Amino acid sequence: MSKYDVAVIGSGPGGYVAAIRCAQLGMKTAIIEKYNILGGTCLNVGCIPSKALLDSSHHYEDAIKHFEDHGIEIPGEVKINFKKMIERKAAVVDQTTKGIDFLMNKNKIDVFTGVGSFKDATHIVITSEKGEETIEATNTIIATGSKPASLPFIKIDKERVITSTEALSLTEIPKHMIVIGGGVIGLELGQVYRRLGAEVSVVEYMDRIIPTMDAAQSKELTKAMKKQGVKFFVSHRVSAVTREGDQVTVTATNKKDEEVSFTGDYCLVSVGRRAYTDGLKAENAGVKITERGMIDVNDHLQSNVKNIYAIGDVIKGAMLAHKAEEEGTFVAETIAGQKPHINYNLIPGVVYTWPEVASVGRTEEQLKEAGVEYKSGQFPMRALGRSRASGDTDGFVKILADKTTDEVLGVHMVGARVADLIAEAVTAMEFRASAEDIARMSHAHPTYAEAVKEAALAATDDRPLHI
Fold it and tell me: What is the CATH number of domain 161-271?
């Protein structure tokens, strides 16, 4: 029987990063993955393929709507080769997952293919088509991730009533895609197909889209996506989804308590994700699973069994790949006897629509609810020379700072490339910068980043330079 210092169950961003860090710290490490390809949801049917389609569809939209403004004329009609677009997405995924294979080999991590389940707290049974194999592990890290959630009355048939997984590999462009859920995944995939010519209707239970983010971001993104032709139906409670042939009907109740229906050829169910612990047999190791299928952990990310840890989507907190990565590193260093830390308040959230949306820290709504006195500085992207040069004038940067100390408490952005720009805010907040600190930093001109400086100036003493 093979013995390991650490066994990692699940090879998504949290799992494979945990395995790499354990190996770097000198531990004999194994990683167990139920599928034949490493990388988990993010690399195979999540973050990476969705960004590939977002970029491809963005290029197409630019060609048909914006090239002419730049003096670029294309003779004849610009056409979509949707099959090739999907093939490119698959090639990007393949290249990325092969990169994980390389990293496993480089770090001498043993890879096991099959379903990992606990025999007891130190033994894991790996079940595959070839049979069963058992390994022994002094420590185990559970990183089994999540699966798309649904509503009890919806039957996902994976043909016309689909999840994000199927939406990434359609064989045709929908005529009318009804998206249930106005969160990150629904908006990103909805925008992909709207750009490609589909009618898109987003049906959201809450009174606004991206409801966990700052209300100003929700308002700005709604305005931008409406201009792009996406239709929004907020404060709508879905009660039924039915299919007849190639037609799907979604029934909902609006805020006036009126029953309304939407008919399309595809329905994307995007109501969040659920922790995935199926087949883990955690009870054999004494690990407790909550009613929601999650694993309770302490501040060291230990389960109730001290040598078994859990990270990523199977524990509380935002279901984000980079959060899982930080936790994977954290657990590896904890096992090695180090004293790492994670500041959960400073894990950024991003929506990869266009304009992009990015946040870190607390929102205005959270500060008001907590009774924190704050000041706010906001600067519109349309006032930047860089934004006008590129034609990306939607959006803003908003900085929230403590009214007394001027420490930055939250930064919220909508605009071009803010998914990358948010790192400046994370860095500043990690070092507990004040709004004045950011305002006094030189920002290259012309850049989108100047909006951060201007918002800081607005928050410091209401003195932005360009509005």
Answer: 3.50.50.60
On the question of a common fold for 161-271 and 346-461, the answer reads no
Between 3.40.50.1240, 3.30.460.10, 3.40.630.30, 3.50.50.60, what CATH number should domain 3-147+274-342 receive? 3.50.50.60
Sign for the CA dihedral angle at 332, 335, 341, 346 comes to: positive
Phi, psi of 24 (to 5 degrees): -60, -30
**Marked catalytic residue, from 66, 70, 300, 445:** 445
Q: How many whole angstroms separate alpha carbon 247 and alpha carbon 305?
A: 49
pLDDT confidence of residue 464: 86
Question: How distant, in Å, are the alpha carbons of 44, 194, 198, 261, 354 from that of 203?
Answer: 27, 15, 16, 10, 20
355, 361 Cβ separation under 8 angstroms: no
The pLDDT tens digits for 26-78 are 999 999 999 999 999 999 999 999 999 999 999 999 999 999 999 999 999 99
Q: Residues 6 or more apart from 427 whose CB is under 8 A from it?
A: none
Looking at the structure, give the CATH architecture of the domain made up of residues 346-461. Answer: 2-Layer Sandwich (3.30)
The answer to whether the CB of 241 falls within 8 A of the CB of 270 is no
Q: Is 445 a catalytic residue?
A: yes
Enumerate helices (H) and strands (E) in the chain, giving the number of each.
Answer: 13, 22
SS3 content of the chain, % helix, strand, coil (to 5): 35, 25, 35
Domains of the chain: which residue ranges? 3-147+274-342, 161-271, 346-461
Strand 131-142 versus strand 3-9 pairing type: parallel
